[in-house]
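If your schedule permits, I should be very grateful for your opinion on a structural question. Kindly check, if you would, that the fold set down in the tokens agrees with what the sequence suggests. Thank you for your consideration; the sequence and its tokens are set out here:
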Amino acid sequence: MGHVEVHPTAVVSPKARIGADVTIGPYSVVGDEAVLGDGVELLSHVVVAGRTQIGQGTRIFPFASIGHQPQDLKYEGEPSRLIIGERCVIRENVTINPGTRGGGMETRIGNNCLLMASSHVAHDCKVGNNVVLANYVGLAGHSVIGDFVAFGGMCAVHQFVRIGSHAFIGAQSMIDADVIPYGMAVGNRAKLAGLNLVGLKRRKFDRDAIHRLRTAYRMIFSSEGTLRERVEDAASMFRDEPLVQDVVRFVAASSDRPLCMPRNGTSEE
């Protein structure tokens, strides 16, 4: 095992599983059932409680509360878990809760995520890889967030909402409906404002693929026929386009929330 550095003021349970090259800073507390992967760093005043697993190379900043019981009145002490991926950065005052019996017993955060100061991930959320939560973003219970989703500051996400991969959520938005992959949503309550074209270009998506996605977007959110008919038409016309098929599958999947729609027509950048 590599070197493990524990500050004299830290309280670390002897039952906790600590990997190699872990640093546990001043006044941090690590509970009995915590698992810290190799290279994890708790800078100071960090609490890791409950059945929490933190992946290799993740850094957690002061006053973060990780793994304490969910803020759910239905929680009855069931042995639920919190799993945080590798190389995440979790900033000051972040709170993350484990799952509940009603949500599969697990909250999960992927790899390479950035959770800025005072953001919150509630019980039973599923957060993908490379997700950015800016300051004061709150994810309510059972939210499902795809890969590469980015949130502006002070957003709130309703319970059970799905946000598809590569979507962008504008600052101060209240999201109470599902946001399609590659979409951009903004407002209270948020509406679709087109596609996340800036994100798609930054991640070097093929220009022609983006063009086909834009055409399918206009088709799906036009005013002709029913939504189901428009989605089926897009699926048929772009059967060999993965980006469009991602949107089609997302819209077709069952959900507890409505679909986030454009405010007027197919507004797009």
Summary: DSSP finds four helices and 28 strands in the chain. The helical segments are 197-202, 207-220, 227-237, 242-252.
